Amino acid sequence: MLRNPFSDMDNRGQVGGGRLDLLAIMITVIAAAVTGYVGLNVMTTTRDQAGITDTSEFYTAQTNLTEGVESFFSGLGTVFTVIVLVVILSYLMLLRGR
């Protein structure tokens, strides 16, 4: 007998009742980080190869973007710590509810 492939979906069309798949979220974040890193390197190489001067708007925008990303990564340890604490707290609340 053929099985209905949509039988495991909830009313929103999500398999598994709409639970977040942690692995899929991690892969998405890593892919976005790699894409952003490559994009910044391309921008820096373009700036250096084109000989853009310090007075150019592109140079200023690219420098501000690079400094902003660097400041984000300096606080990344705190972000991961908060994420771990939220996951632990959520798990404990789930256990308490049982």
Task: Describe the structure concisely.
By secondary structure, the chain is mainly α. It contains three helices and no strands.
Using brief descriptors, characterize the structure shown.
98 residues; mainly alpha; 3 helices; 70% helix; 0% strand; elongated
Walk me through what this model shows.
The chain is an all-alpha fold and 98 residues long. It has one domain. It is 70% helix and 0% strand. It is elongated. The two termini are 37 Å apart.
Q: How many β-strands, per DSSP?
A: 0
- Note the main sheet: none
Structural class assignment: mainly alpha
Average pLDDT, to the nearest integer? 75
Which percent bin holds the helix content?
over 70%
Please tell me how large the radius of gyration is.
22 Å
Strand percentage lies at under 5%
Total separate domains: 1
Global morphology: elongated
First-last Cα distance: 37 Å
Helices and strands in order:
Elements: H1 22-50, H2 57-74, H3 76-97
Helix pairs in contact: 1-2
